Amino acid sequence: MKNVFSSQLIKLRRQRNFSQGALANKMFVSRQSISKWENGESEPSIDKLIDLSDVFNVDLNYLLIGKNKISKEIILKIDSLYKSFNKPVLKNINLKIHGNERIALLGSNGTGKSTLFKTLIGIEQPDKGKITYNFNKHKNLNVMPQQDNLINDLKVNEHINLSSAINKSYSKELTNNLLKKFNLFDNKNDYVSSLSGGQKRKLSLLISVIRPSKLLLLDEPTVGMDLDTIDFFWRYIDHIGGAVITITHDFNQIDKFFSRVILIKNGQISQDASVDTIHSHNQTIEQWYRIMNKE
Ligand SMILES: Nc1ncnc2c1ncn2[C@@H]1O[C@H](COP(=O)(O)OP(=O)(O)OP(=O)(O)O)[C@@H](O)[C@H]1O
């Protein structure tokens, strides 16, 4: 993937009429740092990239690869979706997902959340119904499944190189930055098989976000992860472009970073609400969930 960060930075800075010095003040860095970023001598740390995306009010995809700012169009439509195993699991699911949404998929164990993800990815086929993707599923759908699907016989850096080659990652610098933020940099030469459960989750997560996506599906991404990584991760997710659907019960993060919550009960969508609307009724998402998910 061509990294167009330098030219994007110059363009955005000029559009806002900031001098290099003025931008440096906003970013708490030296003017020389801005100059080095603009002429390609160095790349900012991931925290500074996120700060830049805040200053310019653009997402990381736009900053790093110049892809158009977030689209509000419908990118995914699900019509009358049914799926059974020994018993009915998904019953008449209808959904429209827009390109800029941050959606938390909630529900008790065994209600069909992962099955819905698997049918979206194509691992399971629906019995009935239609899924329409308004984007290229092979290029623009990123996934972190519930079970890690890492290759144990590879070293961490070999795995990342392989995934980057297949998926055309943003840039080597960004991947290295992410490795550092996920505290995996020192494990670069370790075999995947020797990583702890939490480290494997982090590697899986990292691999799911090293390329741009129109839709990112995450199944319980932060389970088993340390708090620092969790905080960083949600902040990063908040700044990438594209839509995100996450199965999570990390309620504090839903309050902070999400725009919509969908509650699945017995294989059906029982609630579909905007986070702002819930907050305007003085409820946290956790309070709302406890009330709505009662039998
Ligand atoms: N491949 C399968 N074969 C048979 N039954 C399955 C299969 N996959 C899922 N199920 C069943 O479908 C139901 C829904 O499972 P699913 O994993 O989608 O739930 P979930 O909401 O993601 O649960 P959890 O929160 O525990 O991950 C469960 O009863 C499960 O046993």
Automatic annotation (TrEMBL):
Residues 9-63 form the HTH cro/C1-type domain. Gene3D superfamilies: lambda repressor-like DNA-binding domains (1.10.260.40), P-loop containing nucleotide triphosphate hydrolases (3.40.50.300). Residues 70-291 form the ABC transporter domain. Keywords: ATP-binding, Nucleotide-binding, Transport. InterPro entries: AAA+_ATPase (IPR003593), ABC_transporter-like_ATP-bd (IPR003439), ABC_transporter-like_CS (IPR017871), ABC_transporter_ATP-binding (IPR050763), Cro/C1-type_HTH (IPR001387), Lambda_DNA-bd_dom_sf (IPR010982), P-loop_NTPase (IPR027417). It comes from the Bacteria. This is XRE family transcriptional regulator.
